[in-house]
Amino acid sequence: MKSDSAATRETVLLVEHEPVTRTGISRVLSEAGYQVIEASRPDEAWTMLETQPDVGVLLADIDAPDGTNSLELARKVHERWPSIGLVITSSHVRHLRPGDIPGDGCFLPRPLPAETLLHEVGVAAHLIPLSGA
Q: Is the pTM of this model over 0.85?
């Protein structure tokens, strides 16, 4: 996939507990020109957010093996840094309401095509307009 100059300026914080999945998603984002920071747990992600002022998108798996939930992380992030775009994923079936993810965040069930991931991260990073806008 060809790198986009706008994407190269965007930093994505990827929160995924499964190393193989995290590596695959990170590769897709990096090849598209995003700067990727990785965390395996929501608490680790929060610490990174406090020290990385340039994060533009939080891309997080909804579930973690320690019982923490990325939806709570997304809510806290939106309260403190409302400009950070939110993309939440899960390999489990979910029935989320639009209001479950703060701001203009979205939920993506996995597995998902790389094109869908890149489109939604682009929307969250304000590089691609919202559908219908």
A: yes
